[in-house]
């Protein structure tokens, strides 16, 4: 591959990577609710956290020692695409008689192979940029932004494209769309530069899995940081799993059924991803002005508003403005903690375990935190909505907001500002 076009090639790689995810991540819950699987939504979204605990590490070992990273990306997307297509075809054939077990198995196998590709695509991009004489720290972030653009475009396609008179956000065709995009990326990944492997280097299993980073728990502040990363990670998948289902529930009210927020809920939620893209640009200013602890606190309290505004909102005017504000706040809630948390790890972890510590941060947030949080949120929604004679979504959102508030207050009290510690 010529160095002159490496940036555009990597932009397309990232665009497709997140378009695969955006095709269904925010709309699957609505479809599941419509086919009578509302109480099972939690298992579909918890599975993403469960596989994130071990699959990225396993595929990372394969890419490090046995198969070039770009080929592992291709293999994973090939398998993810086949299983997701299988899930979509099964749903189309089953119609209104979709059963939980076959759909969940096919979906789980797909996400098990998709989740490792997020980190692997980063690795492929870093090597390609270095191989082209570029600086990944400087040149990768503008490329990664196009991943979020791909996610947004895929969400909007799912929202507005109607097949057979039915919007994709209301049907299983969103699974077919994701599967097709995965297979396209399966082929495209093979055009990336060949990444090196370390076949001749011996490495312990603990090194390969990044287990040495767990020694950071001996440091009291790092232990607090990682524990709160898990607690805040519990919030990550809640709106992905339930926001669209919640907005769709207003369709049962004839006076609200034709509002934009109900008929185009995926488009409304896409404002969250647009905000996420823009908020990345604010982080350098906020980090310089307030420091890491205050930026992380801003993120934690932003989750309070994210959930609380959903509880207060309505699909018609002026209530829909609260939904829009919740989506705008999401960019702060998501970016400010994930990026500032990553920077905290980078600045405070010893160099010899810095990469492993980043993996541990992801494990606590997107693995353990997201898994337990999704399952707990499912219980809350069941109690307030599915097992309640008078379903009350607002109560569920208020419970989530109260949880985020408690986490934020406890973090404010227990976590010490690292900048102040260094100054002492």
Structure overview:
This protein is mostly helical and 424 residues long. The chain folds into two domains: 1-193, MFS general substrate transporter like domains (Growth Hormone, Chain: A, Up-down Bundle), CATH 1.20.1250; 207-416, MFS general substrate transporter like domains (Growth Hormone, Chain: A). It is 75% helix and 1% strand. The protein contains 18 helices and two strands. The protein has helices at 6-22, 28-34, 41-65, 69-94, 100-131, 136-160, 173-188, 205-208, 220-233, 238-249, 260-263, 265-279, 283-290, 292-312, 320-348, 354-386, 393-414, 418-423, and strands at residues 162-163, 166-167. A two-stranded antiparallel ribbon has the order 1-2. α1 packs antiparallel against α5 (100-131) and α3 runs antiparallel to α16 (354-386). The chain is globular. It starts with 5 loop residues before the first helix and ends with a helix. The model has no long low-confidence stretch (mean pLDDT 87).
Short description:
With 424 residues, the protein is mainly α. Helix content is 75%, strand content 1%.
């Amino acid at each position: 591959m010529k160095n002159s076009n490496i940036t555009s090639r990597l932009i397309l790689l990232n665009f497709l990577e997140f378009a695969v995810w955006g095709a269904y991540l925010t709309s699957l819950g609505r479809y599941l609710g419509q086919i009578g699987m509302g109480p099972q939504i939690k298992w579909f979204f918890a599975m993403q956290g469960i596989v994130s605990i071990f699959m990225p590490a396993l595929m990372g070992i394969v890419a490090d020692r046995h198969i070039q990273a770009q080929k592992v990306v291709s293999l994973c997307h090939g398998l993810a695409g086949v299983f997701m297509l299988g899930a979509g075809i099964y749903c189309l054939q089953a119609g209104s008689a979709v059963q939980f077990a076959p759909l969940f198995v096919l979906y789980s196998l797909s996400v098990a192979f998709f989740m490792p590709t997020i980190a692997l695509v980063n690795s492929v991009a870093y090597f390609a940029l270095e191989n082209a004489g570029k600086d990944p720290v400087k040149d990768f972030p503008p490329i990664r932004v196009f991943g979020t653009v791909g996610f947004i475009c895929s969400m909007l396609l799912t929202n507005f494209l109607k097949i057979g008179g039915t919007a994709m956000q209301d049907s299983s065709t969103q699974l077919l769309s994701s599967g097709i995009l995965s297979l396209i990326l399966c082929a495209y990944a093979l055009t990336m530069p060949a990444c090196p492997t370390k076949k001749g280097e011996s490495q312990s299993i603990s090194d390969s899995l990044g287990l040495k980073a767990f020694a950071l728990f001996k440091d009291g502040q790092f232990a607090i940081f990682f524990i709160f990363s898990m607690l805040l990670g519990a919030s990550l998948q809640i709106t992905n799993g339930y926001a669209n289902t919640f907005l769709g529930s207003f369709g049962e009210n004839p006076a609200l059924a034709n509002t934009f927020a109900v008929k185009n809920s995926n488009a409304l939620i896409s404002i969250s991803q647009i905000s996420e893209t823009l908020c990345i640009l604010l982080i350098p200013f906020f980090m310089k002005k307030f420091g890491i602890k205050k930026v992380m606190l801003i993120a934690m309290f932003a989750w309070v508003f994210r959930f609380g505004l959903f509880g207060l909102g309505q699909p018609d005017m002026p209530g829909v403005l609260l939904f829009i504000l919740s989506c705008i706040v999401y960019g702060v809630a998501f970016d400010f903690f994930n990026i500032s948390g990553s920077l905290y790890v980078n600045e405070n972890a010893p160099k010899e375990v810095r990469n492993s510590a980043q993996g541990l941060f992801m494990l606590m947030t997107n693995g353990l935190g997201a898994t337990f949080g999704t399952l707990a949120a499912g219980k809350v929604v069941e109690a307030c909505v599915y097992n309640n004679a008078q379903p009350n979504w607002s109560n569920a959102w208020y419970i989530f907001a109260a949880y985020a508030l408690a986490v934020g207050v406890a973090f404010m009290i227990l976590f010490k500002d690292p900048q102040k510690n260094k100054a002492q």
